[in-house]
Design brief:
This protein has about 140 residues and is mainly α. It has one domain: Fumarate reductase/succinate dehydrogenase, transmembrane subunit (3 helical TM bundles of succinate and fumarate reductases), CATH 1.20.1300.10. The protein is elongated and about 60 Å long.
């Protein structure tokens, strides 16, 4: 078999999840980190829309507030809360890796599961505070 033929049969990238690459916690968290970053960028546009609505007067703000209080608006807000908590915690994990801390496979998995569990718990607490009025 020639070098060229063997190159064609191998996967081109470890991101070819499916028949060539078994998903692992670290790869799924990397993909999720990127997705949460994109979601947060879109969330920044919502913050800008909110500020524009506030500056545009009571009618514009009323329209934005109606959307924010609707089920889709609340689901979007919940998704943004989860995204920011996950992105922040996973970013701290990557910062530790940049410092050379926790790079061993068992520690990488332990920190990964810690991020997942902490994301669920912190997000649930924040959403409970926001939706129950406990943040007042």
């Amino acid at each position: 078999m020639t070098a060229r033929a063997s190159r064609r049969q191998r996967p081109l990238s470890p991101f070819m999840i499916g028949p060539y690459y078994r998903p692992q916690l670290t790869s799924m968290m990397s993909i999720s980190h990127r997705i949460s970053g994109v979601l947060l960028s879109l969330g920044a546009l919502l913050v800008a829309a909110w500020l524009i609505a506030v500056a545009s007067g009571p009618e514009a703000y009323s329209g934005f507030a109606s959307f924010a209080n609707s089920l889709p608006g609340q689901l979007l807000a919940a998704a943004l809360v989860v995204a920011i908590v996950y992105h922040w915690l996973n970013g701290l994990r990557h910062l530790a890796w940049d410092l050379g801390v926790g790079l061993e496979i068992p520690k990488a998995y332990a920190s990964g599961w810690t991020v997942v569990v902490a994301t669920v718990l912190i997000s649930a607490l924040l959403l409970w505070l926001l939706l129950s009025g406990g943040a007042r």
